[in-house]
Each structure stands twice: as structure tokens, then as C-alpha cells.
């Protein structure tokens, strides 16, 4: 029934398969765990498909959870670790473009595999039968191809998110997209309007943190971003022809995403950082485009997108902050770096430096050398500042509002202004961050004598 390709199964998975088979049922590991095992990757989870009904599965194992019993899924608990066991099924029509209207259980593994999205996810395996590959998934893995099971139009019609998933799998594995799938996406991309913002964001995030975030270009080429991220399309259309750039704004963005570590926040920051450029674009008589002040517009757009895609508030806020300051170039001196950190906020200055490096790496190679030299100096100074523990914000001053009140200053809005003045002087000279010096200076600034 299948070739004897060996996959190493975890002990708990083998126990579940053995229990089901010992009671006369078929049982296989299926889907992504099979794909990842063949690719030599550690599966994140192990899904099991069986001919047993949900009720029969529940009867065979002492600890189960009804996680999706209407769709045939029971989670079998093994020493507090859960494994999804799903009955072979055939899906009915997808009226909502996401969920089947009905589910029919079937004793036939082939019918179950035939309802899946891509061939590389439609393989099954057991130690007794080896690899069950009815749709050429193993060959597609060898070819590096993401191809739909059966009709691409039908698969995408069932769940429009599969179009973005196809691109995401290409980005995660460095694969190509099957021509039929590409044509179907171009024809059906507008159906993504039916998909919830949360599901779009989750797939986009997986794409961005993949080894190939630049494959977002594929989503643009197939019309996906025109529906779910039109701001990106505007960047792809925006010419950037000054001496610092050799790419369009969109291509520059793709380069910067590839140049930063695969962190969720940082990849989104690079995606958003220049989205204000099409808004700010001014073409001078010599034909050169300029984008002065674009960081502020990019931050506004980043806020709009993070709201639209339902980001958690903490991630959205940090993302917007980093986008808003990404154009800063602090002077490569201790004072300059301290002031830069005070402006961005000390909590994100290290991330800001990573953003600067990625931004530079997406620019004209002819200008990268001096900029990277400047950045290396700033990074070195920043580490020294961290090691010394220099004061970088009002709350780290040696005096606070209570100290000023105890020293005779009446409460009021002037207190905040005075503390900012003190911070300004401490940023210039950290040695001034001493209580008695700051109290004496505060008296001078407010025109009070020492006996007040």
C-alpha cells in the first residue's frame, strides 16, 4: 500500500497507534508531522487519523478531551501531553469559506486524505504500512513544490485562507508554488475578504518569521496583498531612486525583513517601517523622489494595520514606537547615544539598533560601509552605557517629585518641566546624577535660594 520509508515515532504516539490497531482499527500519523519528518525536521505536534469513531476512541483511552468531537477529533492525554486523534472524514460544502457545513465519517483513509489542502500535507504513515502517499506528496517534497490536492480552485473555495497558507509554506520551506495553484489564487484572491483578521494575521506572521520572508513578494504577485495588505502594494509601486537606494520601497522592505533575525516584532517593524513613503513622496525637478518625515506617516499606518489585524496591544505599541523612530541617526558619542536612547525609550533602543542595521542592509551597497561603521560605534557605546548604568530617563534621576517638594518646590506642572531640564543635563554628563547636585541645580533653575 505504500513504500517503507522509516519515520521515528515518539513512544507515546506509538502507544496510541498500537492501542487503536490492537482493537481492530486503522491508525496513522498524518499531515504536517509526516511532512516534517521526511524533511528531517522535528514536528511540533503529532496528529493521528483513525477509522475508529470518536466514541470508540474515547472508550479505548482513560483520559480524553472532546476538543472537536463534532468534527471527529478527540484529544488523547498521555502523561499530561495531548495528541489529537481524528476519525477519517469527508467534508461537506464550505458555505462560509472556512468550515464544512457537515462532516461525514468514513472508514476509508483515501477519502480522508483527499479532502486535505496540499499534497505535502496529505500523507499518512504507520510502522506497519510505511508511507501512504496517494497524491504525490513525497515527489512534491523532492521537487520543492506546494501543490493542491485535486482541484486548486476547489481547495481554495473551501477555505480562502489556504491561498495565504500556500505562500506561507513556500516561505517556510523555500518551495515554489504550483502553476495551477498560482492561477487559482489570482482568480480567487478576493475571497480572502471573508477570512477573519485574526487568521490572516496568524498566517502572515508565520510567513514573516520564516527563513524566506521575502516571499511576501509571491503574495503580491498573486494578488493576495492587494486584498489583505494593500499598503504593501503601494510600496511595491513606489520608485526610490536617490543615491541611498537601488530598490523600490517594497523591494527594499523585503530585503530588510530578510536582514533581521526572525523575531515576530522585528519582522513586522521592517514590514511597516517605510509604509509612509508613498504618502510623503515628492519628486523634484531632477526626477529624484524624496520622503522627508515619512517615519511619522509609517507609524500612523502601522497603527492602522495592527488595529485592523487585531494585534495584541503590547506588540502593537512597541511596533508603532519602533517604526516612528527608525529614521533617527544618533551621534556616535556617549552623549549622542544617551540622547538617542532617551528619545526612543531605553527599553527599545537595542531593538532600534537592530532595525537600523536591517534598514542599512536594504540600501545601496555603495553607502552601506560608512553607515555600518557608524552603527558599530554606536552599538559599542551603547553596551558601555548599559554596563555603567547611565541615567537615561526621568525615573532614573537621583531625585524625584517628592524630593523636590521636600526641598520646597510647590507641586504643579512646573515640576515635570524641571525634572526634564535636570535629565537634559544628566544626559550630557552622567556624573551630575547625584542627589545633592540635582537639588542644588533645581533651586538655581527655579530661582530659589538654598534657605527656601
Commentary on this structure:
The protein is built from 23 helices and 13 strands. The mean pLDDT is 95. The strands form 4 sheets. Strands 3-4-5-2-1-8-9 form a 7-stranded mixed β-sheet. A two-stranded antiparallel sheet has the order 6-7. Strands 10-11 form a two-stranded parallel sheet. α6 (152-158) packs across α8, α7 packs parallel to α9 (197-208) and α13 (249-258) runs antiparallel to α14 (264-272). By secondary structure, it is α+β, with helices and mostly antiparallel strands. It has helices at residues 11-22, 32-38, 54-60, 109-113, 137-143, 152-158, 161-173, 179-188, 197-208, 216-221, 224-228, 230-237, 249-258, 264-272, 277-280, 294-308, 313-325, 334-344, 346-361, 365-388, 401-406, 413-428, 435-446; strands spanning 27-30, 47-50, 64-68, 73-78, 81-87, 89-91, 103-105, 123-126, 130-133, 145-146, 176-177, 282-283, 289-290. A hairpin with a 3-residue loop joins β8 and β9 (130-133). It is elongated, with a radius of gyration of 29 Å.
Amino acid at each position: 500500500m505504500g513504500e517503507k520509508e522509516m519515520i521515528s515515532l515518539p513512544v507515546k504516539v506509538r502507544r496510541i497507534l498500537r492501542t487503536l490497531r490492537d482493537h481492530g482499527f486503522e491508525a496513522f500519523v498524518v499531515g504536517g508531522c509526516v511532512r516534517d519528518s521526511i524533511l528531517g525536521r522535528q514536528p511540533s505536534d503529532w496528529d493521528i487519523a483513525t477509522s475508529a469513531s470518536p466514541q470508540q476512541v474515547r472508550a479505548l483511552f482513560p483520559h480524553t478531551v472532546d476538543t472537536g468531537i463534532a468534527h471527529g477529533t478527540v484529544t488523547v492525554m498521555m502523561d499530561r501531553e495531548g495528541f489529537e486523534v481524528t476519525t477519517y472524514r469527508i467534508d461537506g460544502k464550505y458555505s462560509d469559506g472556512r468550515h464544512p457545513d457537515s462532516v461525514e465519517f468514513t472508514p476509508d483513509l483515501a477519502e480522508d486524505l483527499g479532502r486535505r489542502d496540499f499534497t505535502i500535507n496529505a500523507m499518512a504513515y504507520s510502522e506497519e504500512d510505511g508511507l501512504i502517499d496517494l497524491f504525490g506528496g513525497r515527489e512534491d517534497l523532492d521537487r520543492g513544490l506546494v501543490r493542491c490536492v485535486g482541484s486548486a480552485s476547489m481547495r481554495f473555495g473551501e477555505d480562502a485562507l489556504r491561498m495565504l497558507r500556500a505562500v506561507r509554506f513556500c516561505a517556510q520551506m523555500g518551495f515554489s508554488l504550483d502553476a495551477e495553484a498560482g492561477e487559482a489564487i489570482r482568480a480567487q484572491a478576493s475571497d480572502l475578504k471573508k477570512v477573519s483578521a485574526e487568521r490572516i494575521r496568524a498566517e502572515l506572521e508565520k510567513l514573516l518569521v520564516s527563513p524566506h520572508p521575502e516571499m511576501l513578494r509571491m503574495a503580491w504577485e498573486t494578488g493576495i496583498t492587494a486584498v489583505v495588505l494593500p499598503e504593501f502594494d503601494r510600496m511595491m509601486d513606489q520608485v526610490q531612486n536617490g543615491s541611498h537606494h537601488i530598490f523600490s520601497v517594497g523591494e527594499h522592505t523585503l530585503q530588510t525583513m530578510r536582514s533581521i533575525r526572525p523575531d515576530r516584532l522585528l519582522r513586522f517593524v521592517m514590514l511597516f517601517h517605510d509604509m509612509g513613503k508613498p504618502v510623503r513622496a515628492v519628486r523634484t525637478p531632477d526626477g529624484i523622489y524624496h520622503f522627508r518625515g515619512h517615519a511619522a506617516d509609517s507609524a500612523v499606518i502601522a497603527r492602522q494595520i495592527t488595529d485592523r489585524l487585531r494585534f495584541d496591544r503590547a506588540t502593537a505599541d512597541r511596533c508603532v514606537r519602533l517604526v516612528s523612530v527608525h529614521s533617527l541617526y544618533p551621534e556616535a558619542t556617549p552623549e549622542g547615544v544617551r540622547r538617542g536612547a532617551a528619545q526612543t525609550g531605553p527599553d527599545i533602543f537595542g531593538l532600534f539598533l537592530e532595525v537600523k542595521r536591517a534598514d542599512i542592509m536594504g540600501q545601496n551597497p555603495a553607502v552601506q560601509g560608512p553607515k555600518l561603521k557608524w552603527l558599530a560605534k554606536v552599538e559599542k557605546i551603547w553596551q558601555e552605557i548599559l554596563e555603567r548604568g547611565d541615567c537615561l530617563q526621568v525615573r532614573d534621576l537621583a531625585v524625584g517629585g517628592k524630593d523636590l517638594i521636600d526641598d520646597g518646590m510647590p507641586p504643579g506642572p512646573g515640576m515635570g518641566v524641571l525634572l526634564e531640564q535636570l535629565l537634559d543635563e544628566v544626559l550630557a554628563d552622567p556624573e551630575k546624577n547625584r542627589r545633592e547636585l540635582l537639588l542644588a541645580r533645581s533651586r538655581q533653575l527655579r530661582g530659589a535660594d538654598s534657605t527656601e
